């Protein structure tokens, strides 16, 4: 695995070896240099090889802390499959995933280890990871697979299987497109158990020899301090975090930040404009999915940069936009279903024998979008989110984008409300931009009627304090549809 080779190269280098690989942004936070990280990874791999069979699946259930890269890279180095899950996962869900993945071991908190005590043969408490013997070298074996839960934004999550080769491909693609380098300091706030957080807080930085400032979650005071005085150069984040930064505190310089970018959810133009106005920084966008990894990047330094787009494909990534019904390729500027072929793509879904790709090796993302004349990809909606109202189809993303322009709306989602077996109506769920001035439903509908064809205007507008989102910022529509 190239990633592990790069780690060992950094460790042996007189320049890179002493460089900090990970620094925790917590009171009394610890750090690991590259030579220490490589040593700990080897020790963990050796320990794991003595405990479980080659090819076993190991669940990783810990928060963003320095044990995380040790355990994840060590598991791969031991020839085992690593399955990261949220440190906050509920016990029934954890047990269900362990059974589905046929897990043989868990590395996690005491709570997580107890939860699987009767299901897996090996439980490794996260607090013991850095105390393992460092005097032995792990047997060299082929690296294991990376298992990840799909986002589950519209349906039940599936377990995605990505090979060592796909992990190498996505880390190389990010380094080339975004420009991760040894002088970079990366502020990592997205949980490492998610594809986006893992790729930009572990895979690309370790490949490049960057330093990661590891935050256990979104803490605005910590983010502001690090961006102001922590020497941060790269800030991968989510739209909701950028929005909160625009709403809280006074403008201040971000002296060392060279790239900030968003993924996980569409970046509203209003947030892009507000962040640029307040901080003087233009936010880029990424596009990807758990199944394919990060595959495009919209770089604000590109002369053809479009704030509405998610950018150009990485090297060796192919994008097709096709008619959802005929599968005929769409010309630039015309919307269709987005298909991706990339070396970073997954092998398939666990326990699912159905082919994951079409005959040409393309994966159907389920997204709607188009390529512009410069080759930039613009995402405009979701195929499964086209709701039929009176025989006419509504792209809910179009409605949500307009809702976000209402001065009293901070966040918005549009879902279908089933009236009968054949009739659906639209419901908008919005959150207040100002705590003392919640949106008035009739006013919101009037706002939309001035801008949309009548059948696209939701019949019901519901105001809630917040919308259900995953830690990576994805809207969990199924929870709104169920409520």
Keyword list:
483 residues, alpha/beta, Rossmann fold, GMP Synthetase, Chain A, domain 3, 3 domains, 4-stranded mixed beta sheet, globular
Write a structural description.
The chain has 3 domains: 2-9 and 27-144, Rossmann fold; 185-347 and 364-383, 3-Layer(aba) Sandwich (Rossmann fold); 390-482, ANL, C-terminal domain (GMP Synthetase, Chain A, domain 3, 2-Layer Sandwich), CATH 3.30.300. 29% of the residues lie in helices and 25% in strands. The protein has 13 helices and 25 strands. It has a 5-stranded mixed beta sheet with strand order 11-12-13-14-15. It has a 4-stranded mixed beta sheet with strand order 2-1-10-9, with helices on both faces. Helix 1 packs across helix 2, helix 2 (34-51) packs across helix 3 and helix 9 (239-247) crosses helix 10. The chain is globular. It starts with a helix and ends with a helix.
Q: What's the average pLDDT?
A: 91
Q: Which strand order does the major sheet show?
A: 11-12-13-14-15
> How much of the sequence is in beta strands?
25-35%
Quaternary state, please? single chain
CATH architectural grouping of the largest domain: 3-Layer(aba) Sandwich
CATH topology of the largest domain: Rossmann fold
Number of strands: 25
CATH classification class of the largest domain: Alpha Beta
The number of helices is 13
Major β-sheet, in short? 5 strands, mixed
Number of domains: 3
CATH superfamily of the largest domain: ANL, N-terminal domain
Question: What Rg is obtained from the alpha carbons, in whole angstroms?
Answer: 23 Å
Helix content estimate? 25-40%
Low-confidence stretches: none
Q: What class, by secondary structure content?
A: alpha/beta
N-to-C terminal Cα separation, in Å? Answer: 45 Å
Overall form: globular
